[in-house]
Amino acid sequence: MTSQHPLPTLYIPHGGGPCFFMEWNPPHLWDRMGDYLRDIPRQVGQRPKAILVISAHWMTERFTVQTKAKPGMLFDYYGFPDHTYRLNYPAPGSPELAERVIALAAEAGIPVDRDAKRDYDHGVFVPFLLMYPEADIPVVQLSIKSNWDPQQHIALGKALAPLRDEGVLIVASGMSFHDLKALIRLSLAHEPVNGSHYFNDWLNDTLTAHTGEAREALLRDWSKGAGARIAHPHEDHLVPLFVAAGAASDAKAVRTYDETLRPMNTAVSGFQFG
Fold it and tell me: Quick one: which of 118, 116, 114 has its CA closest to 74?
């Protein structure tokens, strides 16, 4: 069954831990990002039949898809207030969507394993409590590979592109800036993350000024981009983007969120393809 229009693919920031559900200093550090996430259903325009999430917080040797029908919460963050370990996002899983992911990937010669025990990590439940708080749309997680190879993730995205015509919203959940240790340290010291804007600008130009193979070629060489290793000493939070961009193919991208987090002077963006 096809949807009225192909759904877009998204690359969203999910913040730091349970950041939207606790107090911070400065007190409004995450407000704009939270408002952006709440506005995503309006930006998407259609209600998805199901959602496939590629989370930066699930890395496996081989691509793996969550097949659990009723996932629970995986609290994979540490040192936060007690109430943040009682957050709950009771969206159903979808073994049917998981099998569709496996079948589409197999057609492209890409093996995808099953995991019937995996619960929703905070790259899913934290942003989705804002995006789709009713938790009434089936959600399935897909891992990234621990080799972080851009081409392999782009290829998987291309294989999964038909899902967009089937009412499935593909969401890459990460952060366009993710030197989290520097972010916390400099936040406390009220110092800027020098150079973070270089990569933010490079990423915006790469995604919005190019489509298809030209965009994919730039993403394959992302580490050569301006400020790349300032923003991503380790690229786990960038890798989900490669899947979303691959699934987007020739769809144009727009930057739907752009903020400089204060007082660290750290640039963060979100994007929608199609």
Answer: 118
What length does the chain have?
274
Q: What is the pTM of this model?
A: 0.93
Residues ≥6 apart with Cβ < 8 Å to 39: none
Distance between CA 120 and CA 127 in Å, rounded?
Answer: 11
Binned at pLDDT 50, 70 and 90, residue 261 comes out as confident
Q: Tokens 């804002």 belong to which residue? A: 130
| 25: number of Cβ within 10 Å | 7
Range 130-137 contact pairs with CB under 8 angstroms and sequence separation of 24 or more: 130/20, 130/34, 130/37, 130/38, 131/12, 131/37, 131/38, 131/40, 131/41, 132/41, 132/51, 132/91, 135/89, 135/90, 135/91, 136/91, 137/47, 137/48, 137/49, 137/50, 137/51, 137/91
- The H-assigned helical ranges of 110-211 are 122-131, 150-160, 180-189, 196-208
